[in-house]
């Protein structure tokens, strides 16, 4: 792993970069590992909500000026993704890049690629910028299913209706008595970035809020949550 | 429900995402060593407390986490405008319709 650290980049940036994945013998533990172990595995029939953790992914915070071509082009060269506009996100098969603030973006992707991606960014970026590995401080939670939006409507003050929250939009807002960054990844699927210390609280909140819609703690199989047309007829009040 | 417009996110957001941070447009004495104790004390400790129009700093704490300015009527709580850091306020006195 440590061969990935490029000496030239280290010297030119004078930044201490290290492999943050534990070496052999030390298992990595996600903030929600204890929930995964104790969760009931009996999925209800025809679940309305699916909830699962997208554990131990790479989380890199990027800071820089979008008007600085060295920064914007460098991000695109390293990730293959253009810097998204305000409250938007761009993604490819592996990586997702979300707008967080006018000078901040969050890059998430495969858990074993953090060091390689950080090195690649530092090779490509120029000017005044920052790349910070924040993977230890937060995790990703996925919420899917025909009633996923109903769960969010109960949980946050933000308007998650289609007209205000199309697929691809990213919003950091209040969730329960904590906060989360919501990204709509599909018609019926959402990704939540939650702080490590609040992950347990938010998980329990979502589990509780999902009970009435028949909650499955498994990732849905392909096509399970695609039946959108049927939902629209079944619950006209929400649309 | 009380919505505040964040000039960085470019949309109205629920008030609980924001925190007020006091009077805006305070400038630090350019040469602290040369200013009097009174000038320094004014800058450090004394704030306006007007009845009516007030320019103040807010932060979109549970959002983009950026600080911005707001012009607010302290009598009615009405926010007349929000604008980015470094910008000048457009509303500097009440128009007849706004006067409470
Ligand atoms: Zn904002």
Automatic annotation (TrEMBL), chain A:
InterPro entries: SoxG (IPR007375), TrmE/GcvT-like (IPR027266). It comes from Marinobacter lipolyticus SM19. Transmembrane segments: none annotated. This is Sarcosine oxidase subunit gamma. Residues 218-239 are annotated as: Disordered. It comes from the Bacteria.
TrEMBL record, chain B:
GO terms for biological process: tetrahydrofolate metabolic process. InterPro entries: SoxD, SoxD_sf. GO terms for molecular function: sarcosine oxidase activity. Signal peptide: none annotated. Gene3D superfamilies: Folate-binding superfamily. Pfam families: SoxD. This is Sarcosine oxidase subunit delta. It comes from Marinobacter lipolyticus SM19.
